[in-house]
Amino acid sequence: MLIKAITDSERPDFWLISDPHLIADDLHDFGARFKKMWQTSAGKDIAYQDLALRAFVRKVVRANPAALIITGDLTFNGAKRSAERLGEIFAPLKEAGIALLVIPGNHDIYDGWARSFSGSEERRVAQISPADWKEIFSASYDLAASQEPGSLSYSVNLNPHWRLLLLDSNLYSSQFSYTHPMTSGGIDDGERRWLS
User: Fold this and answer.
1) Are strands 14-17 and 67-71 parallel, antiparallel or unpaired?
2) Is pLDDT above 60 for 3?
3) Does the pLDDT value for residue 62 go beyond 90?
4) From residue 112, how far is each of 37, 77, 158 by CA, in Å?
5) C-alpha distance across the termini of the chain, in Å
6) What does DSSP say about strands 99-103 and 115-118: parallel, antiparallel, or unpaired?
7) CB 89 within 8 A of CB 36
């Protein structure tokens, strides 16, 4: 039997979403440079995510699942402010007793495209480091039954019978980046040892 489970229910309700690609509203002004970037964002709805995600959170709170799981690309371009804003948007889940479980995607950690947009200009902004990620989403890691020390991977006991593995398979720089995010990944030897 597993210990430290989110719920003791045999068949709990868990919700899953992926790739919200949030860019915090205070990082743009709907100006010319933001609109140009938006037009090239491969169809991502990056202009109204704050509003849409807040509405989604109200729906999750009403449905009251045991947990909401978000698998990667929580931010559009790895701006630390966007991750902080996402944490603020999803804060009502904790108040409602709903676990928020997150794992980064290739857009999230040390993304060299982290920018703010004002008028016709863009500026580099703080990127998310692995330490920032664990701090911003500390409530997720607080629920971990086990954490892999060399990555952001962790496991959570969903109930006495189900264990969820949240695997960080991303490749990213070990420091502030000036380049685009890497789109490949894998599980390294340290993660394999931890999994076994």
Assistant:
1) parallel
2) no
3) yes
4) 15, 8, 35
5) 18
6) unpaired
7) no
Query: What residues have CB less than 8 Å from 39, skipping those under 6 apart?
Result: none
Separation between Cα atoms, residue 158 and residue 168, nearest integer Å:
18
Q: Is the dihedral of CA 145, 143, 103, 150 positive or negative?
A: negative
pLDDT in tens, 112-160: 889 999 999 999 999 999 999 999 999 999 999 999 999 999 999 988 8
Length of the chain: 196
